[in-house]
Structures are given as structure tokens and as C-alpha cells.
Design brief:
The chain has 157 residues and is of the alpha+beta class. The protein has a domain at 44-142: Pantoate--beta-alanine Ligase, Chain: A,domain 2 (2-Layer Sandwich). Helices cover 46% and strands 22% of the residues. The protein is rod-shaped and about 105 Å long. Residues 3-7 and 147-155 have low confidence and may be disordered.
């Protein structure tokens, strides 16, 4: 009877070898599950990181674009008020702390339908950033060279 319970004369019962093999198979399956879960986590983290990076880049680009539009509006208002020269002298740098930005004024005279000078110009302010690829253009029709009339003061009776 003892000889029947031993398998191939190794001294182990025949059922012991099968249970050890199943334990190793379960451990291998658990290891595969852990590796698969880790791979899925890494893939999900890569997707989320890529989306976050893209979002931050877009936010920075929008911030620079808005800053350039604000600078263009301010520069055009300063030209209208006579605080900045109304001549196109090429790119000019802003004062500190805006030294990364430059502005340029492009002035185009406008004509009437019959080709006469209308006294109006198309003033286009071009704002550029030194390092980022940001260019903002803002155009407005102006009557340059004339000061706005001061409001009349009515004397009191």
C-alpha cells in the first residue's frame, strides 16, 4: 500500500506535487495581475500628465495673448492722447518691467472715394514678445495731429 501512494519512487505522495504546482500557478497569476495593474496605472498617469501639460501650455499662451492685447490697447490709447509718438519708427521696447515686449506703430493714410486725403489714418499697433511666439495687432482709424478741443468753460452769472 505504501508503494502505491508514492509516485515514481521519490518518496512524495502523488497529490503533493500537484498542490505545490497549483500554489506556484496562483502566485504567478497574482504576479501577472499586479504587473498588469501597474502597467495600466502607468498608462493612465501618462495620459493625465500629458493632458495637464497641454492645459498648462494653453493657459500660458492665453495669458501672454491677453497681456499683449492689453499692451496694444494701452499703447493705442497713449498714441491718441499724444503720450507716445505717432510716427512709425520701427520696433521699440517697453520700459521695465515690460522689457520682454516691443511695440511698433504702422500708420497708413486713408483716402476718400475720389482719392483725396481724408485727414484720417489707419494706426495699427503691433505688439511682440521677445521669447514667446506672440504677436498681437490692433488697428484703429484716427485723426492724428489735432488735439482734442478743451471743453468750454461757461462763466457763472
Amino acid at each position: 500500500m505504501k508503494a502505491a501512494s508514492l509516485s515514481s519512487g521519490l518518496g512524495r505522495p502523488s497529490g503533493a506535487r500537484t498542490s505545490v504546482g497549483l500554489r506556484f500557478a496562483h502566485r504567478g497569476a497574482a504576479l501577472m495581475e499586479v504587473l498588469l495593474a501597474l502597467a495600466l496605472f502607468v498608462a493612465a498617469a501618462a495620459v493625465v500628465t500629458g493632458a495637464l501639460n497641454s492645459s498648462l501650455t494653453s493657459l500660458e499662451r492665453q495669458k501672454l495673448g491677453l497681456h499683449a492685447l492689453n499692451l496694444a490697447t494701452s499703447t493705442l490709447a497713449e498714441i491718441q492722447l499724444g503720450l507716445r509718438p505717432a510716427s512709425g519708427e520701427g520696433q521699440q521696447a517697453f520700459a521695465s518691467p515690460l522689457q520682454e515686449w516691443t511695440w511698433e506703430l504702422l500708420v497708413t493714410p486713408l483716402e476718400t472715394e475720389v482719392g483725396e486725403a481724408a485727414g484720417l489714418v489707419r494706426a495699427e499697433v503691433v505688439i511682440r514678445h521677445a521669447t514667446a511666439p506672440v504677436v498681437q495687432r490692433l488697428a484703429h482709424v484716427l485723426k492724428l495731429g489735432t488735439k482734442a478741443a478743451a471743453p468750454a468753460v461757461v462763466p457763472e452769472p
